[in-house]
Design goal:
The chain has helices at residues 5-26, 30-51, 54-79, 91-114, 130-138, 146-169. It folds into 2 domains: 5-90, NADH-ubiquinone/plastoquinone oxidoreductase chain 6, subunit NuoJ (Four Helix Bundle (Hemerythrin (Met), subunit A)); 128-170. 75% of the residues lie in helices and 0% in strands. With 170 residues, the protein is an all-alpha fold.
């Protein structure tokens, strides 16, 4: 198995995601945590681009890295003070999180060890026509995405209004 440029880029992006994911959940400052989450989402988009999923990578950057993280930072700055720190974890919560992480690791290892991976060669990435994607996003039939999109947008609008109300009460 030779090391190609794609393999090296994948391992660099995977290491980047692992490091910044750990930093996201272990930092004491909340705004830094949101910034580290932004880096994780950009690296995830990089993996999508590496796999040839350009539309999914673009959506990852626009929606998650661009919209959701900005919403997180906006709500953090709106509802907290300048020097807010995350509170110290209690021992019971730490042990519960450690147990859940170990259980997840066992499940992942079980799936990886039980699966017989088939080597595939000569697979060309299939680029779906933008017209098909647009029709799927804007359709209101059984497999359309208009209703979930509208539900999420109303939920995000309610969160912003709630954050404004909380900030205004101060």
């Amino acid at each position: 198995m030779g090391l190609t440029l794609e393999t090296i880029v994948f391992f660099v992006l995977a290491a980047f995601i692992i490091v910044f994911s750990v930093m996201t959940v272990t930092t004491k400052r909340i705004v830094r945590s949101a910034t580290y989450l932004l880096f994780v989402l950009f690296a995830t988009a990089g993996i999508y681009f590496l796999l040839g999923y350009t539309f999914l990578g673009s959506v990852q950057i626009m929606v998650y890295a661009g919209g959701i993280v900005v919403l997180y930072v906006f709500s953090i700055l709106l509802t907290s003070g300048d020097n807010d720190y995350a509170e110290k974890l209690k021992r019971s919560k730490f042990l519960a999180g450690l147990g859940a992480s170990l259980a997840g690791l066992v499940v992942v290892l079980f799936i990886i060890l039980k699966n017989k991976f088939i080597s595939t060669t000569d697979i060309e990435p299939v680029e779906i026509n933008m017209k098909v994607i647009g029709n799927a996003l804007l359709s209101s039939d059984k497999y359309g995405y208009v209703l979930p999109f509208e539900a999420v947008s109303i939920l995000l609008l309610a969160c912003i209004i709630g954050g404004l109300l909380i900030a205004r009460k101060r």
